[in-house]
Design goal:
Distance between the termini: 42 Å
Largest sheet: 4 strands, mixed
CATH topology of one domain: Immunoglobulin-like
Strand content: 35-45%
Structural class: alpha+beta
Shape: globular
Number of strands: 8
Order of helices and strands: HHEEEEEEEE
CATH class of one domain: Mainly Beta
Helix content: 10-25%
Number of helices: 2
Length: 153
């Protein structure tokens, strides 16, 4: 076995043992506690998905080695209104905050369609103004065109 594989296996074993992923069963009396915790976690996520949060930034990052012209268009789906449409020249490894959904003053949970065009490639992403949805980042890349980075609960 070569040294690199041995070190990888040792690191993997230490990682599993540190996180408790190696073979010990939980005591029998805590199983009901675990099911209660998991269902309350689901309830918290469901509640977050039903709670309005108008503050979501939309960022664009240039991961290319050259400057790129990018057009960001944001449409508020409930009204059909284009609330943002602007072209940016973004330098390599730079990030621009194009828009924040709170600028449209959403009354409740609303859906926005975010569209980004760069170097002949266009992609869109739906963004909802709830607590479950995080901020949104469009990444302009050499190989894939446009990638989306986001978090949801």
């Amino acid at each position: 076995m070569n040294r690199r594989k041995l070190l990888q296996l040792i690191g993997l074993s230490l990682g599993f043992s540190a996180t408790g992923c190696l073979g010990t069963d939980p005591p029998q009396d805590t199983e009901s506690d675990q099911s209660e915790n998991s269902s309350s976690g689901l309830d918290a996520n469901a509640e977050a998905a039903q709670t309005p949060d108008p503050d979501h930034s939309i960022q664009i990052k240039n991961e290319r080695s050259d400057p790129v012209n990018v057009t960001a268009t944001v449409i508020q789906e409930t009204t059909g209104e284009t609330v943002h449409n602007q072209t940016y020249t973004i330098q390599p490894d730079a990030t621009v905050t194009a828009y924040n959904t709170r600028q449209a003053n959403p009354d409740s949970i609303e859906e926005f369609n975010v569209s980004v065009t760069a170097n002949g490639s266009t992609d869109s992403f739906p963004l909802e103004t709830d607590q479950c949805m995080g901020d949104l980042e469009a990444q302009v890349t050499e190989s894939d065109g446009i990638d989306w980075l986001y978090a949801v609960c």
